[in-house]
Amino acid sequence: MNFTNWKAFGKASVIALATLAFSNDAEAQKGKWVTLFDGKNLNGWHSWQQDKVLPQWKIEDGAVVLAEKGGKDLVTDKEYGDFELELEWKIAEGGNSGIIYHVVEDKKYCCPYSTGPEIQVLDDVKHPDSKAGKAGNHKSGSLYDMIPASDFTAVKPAGEWNKAKIVIKGGKGESWLNGKKVVEFPTQGAEWDKLVANSKFKTWQGFGASPKGKIALQDHGDKVSYRNIRIKEL
Q: How far is Cα 97 from Cα 214, in angstroms, rounded to an integer?
């Protein structure tokens, strides 16, 4: 082997080892809980299509709070495919927000809900959206405008903390609220396509089409708080 070939071989070996190390590191992260918000800073987050978190999102008493309209949706820097997400949320009286997953952050889309399905966060008693949609599929814990929560009593009222869990794995999804599984849903295939076709999203190109994406906390203009946010890649 001449020097030129040896040099090329060495370079290729370094690249291969680096790729293997990266793959092993990524694999090692699977199955481990990772804190997305520790109550102290918003490292790993940004406002939608911004290079920073806008000031309307504040940290108060260990929670990230949308204090006023204009903060844009809060979006993770990282994309996730299959995952288990846990967090707590508290909505203001008459308020509306949501947890959106598999978000594609591209300038051709107006906002995270253009591509990402949403688990609803709402004051079911006083927000008018609670009575919209079909069979309660705009109420808290529901897969928004698609599948209603199975138990509308699982949610705690405005001003109280609710514990939510979202699981996306192997083409299936689950929404949990305060320890109770309230929705099961497909995330791909013919069943998913049927859900989309029967929803307000039926003409939205790209909606629910990506197998991975960012996670967003919605700025719907109302005060909302989130805390104890962690994720486990599956």
A: 17
